[in-house]
């Protein structure tokens, strides 16, 4: 597995609904370096997931181009792997067979078994390899989905709110797991999230998407370089100012309470 750069140049996307053409994204220029973790943040409906799908070749841009490792993406790209909000495991397959489904074509039996065993171990599911999705928790199923994506040996890992459906404690554990997995795999990561804390905890950079003019398509409004090396301390006071800044850009402002404390 070798991390590769991801570049979007002048990317725009229009959709036609009931005969009306609507611009969702316009003029997006974004370069993600090999091995970098970038979080896409923004309000619902601003085009975050659409941008992720364009990066992986699941959608074609209306304007501009997407390049992975310098080569244009023209369709579903084997250099990328996607983890969605739901695990999307095949219910009739065991976890190990679901992970094996992600192996690149041409992987031999012995090599494939070793690869599956490795990633199940990395995500903490070695003891549950023979279980089916209905026999494990939602967090475990999402770990299996992450292992399946990594078994593909992607140069770019695309994560579309992968922890949004999990309970708060499981979500924190999955965030920590992602830090460990990214360090192990070294892959480039583009993460869509609504969670400011998650973005600041996981990413090297946070890219804020939103409409550049009222009613218009979304573009990049702000890019923030997150200070400090990963893994970060969630209690780091140095991140508090960045959190307030990002929330303000999203239209959420601190509320000053009577006793002088600040509530977000």
Plain-language structure description:
The protein is an alpha/beta fold and 264 residues long. It has 7 helices and 12 strands. The protein has helices at residues 48-55, 95-100, 109-122, 138-151, 168-185, 196-202, 240-249; strands spanning 6-17, 20-32, 37-41, 63-68, 71-72, 80-83, 156-160, 188-192, 205-211, 218-225, 255-256, 262-263. The chain has a 6-stranded mixed sheet with strand order 6-7-8-3-9-10, sandwiched between helices. A 4-stranded antiparallel sheet has the order 2-1-4-5, with helices on one face. A two-stranded antiparallel ribbon has the order 11-12. Helix 3 crosses helix 4.
Low-confidence stretches: 256-264
Fraction in helix: 25-40%
Tell me the strand order in the biggest sheet: 6-7-8-3-9-10
Q: How many beta-strand runs? A: 12
N-C termini distance: 40 Å
Helix and strand run? EEEHEEEHHHEHEHEEHEE
Query: Helix/strand/pairing class, anyone?
Result: alpha/beta
Quick rundown:
With 264 residues, this protein is an alpha/beta fold.
């Amino acid at each position: 597995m070798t991390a590769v750069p991801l570049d979007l140049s002048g990317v725009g996307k229009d959709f036609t609904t009931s005969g009306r053409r609507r611009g969702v994204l316009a003029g997006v220029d974004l370069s993600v370096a090999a091995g970098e973790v970038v979080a896409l943040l923004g309000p619902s409906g601003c085009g975050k997931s659409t941008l992720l799908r364009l990066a992986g070749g699941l959608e074609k841009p209306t304007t501009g181009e997407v390049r992975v490792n310098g080569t244009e993406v023209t369709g579903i790209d084997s250099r990328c792997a996607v983890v969605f909000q739901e695990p999307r495991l095949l219910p009739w397959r065991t976890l190990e067979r679901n992970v094996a489904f992600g192996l690149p074509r041409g992987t031999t039996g012995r090599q494939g078994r070793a690869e599956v065993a490795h990633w199940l171990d990395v995500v903490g599911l070695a003891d549950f390899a023979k279980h089916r999705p209905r026999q494990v928790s939602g967090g475990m199923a999402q770990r299996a989905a992450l292992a399946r994506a990594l078994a593909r040996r992607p140069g770019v890992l695309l994560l579309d709110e992968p922890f949004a459906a999990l309970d708060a404690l499981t979500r924190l554990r999955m965030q920590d797991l992602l830090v460990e997995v990214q360090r192990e795999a070294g892959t480039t990561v583009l993460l869509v999230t609504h969670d400011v804390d998650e973005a600041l905890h996981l990413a090297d950079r946070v890219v804020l998407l939103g409409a550049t003019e009222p009613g218009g398509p979304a573009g990049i409004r702000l890019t923030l370089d997150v200070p400090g090396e990963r893994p970060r301390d969630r209690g780091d006071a140095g991140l508090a100012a960045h959190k307030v800044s990002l929330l303000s850009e999203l239209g959420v402002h601190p509320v000053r309470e009577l006793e002088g404390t600040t509530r977000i």
